Amino acid sequence: MRRWVKIGTVLLLVLTLGLQWVLLQTIAWTGMIISYSQENSFSEALSMTFDGEHPCCLCKAIKQGRAAEKQQEKLAPTNKLTPAIIWQSPFYCFDSERGMISSVDEFFPQLSNSPPKPPPRGDSLPLSLKA
Asked: Residue 106 falls within a domain, yes or no?
């Protein structure tokens, strides 16, 4: 099961990146070199393969497929997510009402109670409580 998931993931990645055209073009070039080298020398077969004047049927189909794919990309809206840094300027409000707030907190009067004393230590316990 894991193997099929890996194969499917690789296949999806290959198709997403458009590497199917590279694979097909490599196959076409290999076939052209083999067929041209049967009638000519190897160096002539290489030059005929890559000069662009002697395309095979597969090369023509690849060219049409790439052109159709580019045409679709131009017509279709892009659904790709473009990473962007979103920056918003800080919002400052300088109303006249803000100036009316006093610096002393009038709503919560300060407590006059002193903080609690620390708990007594073990040596200050009454003798009746010591074990």
From this structure: no
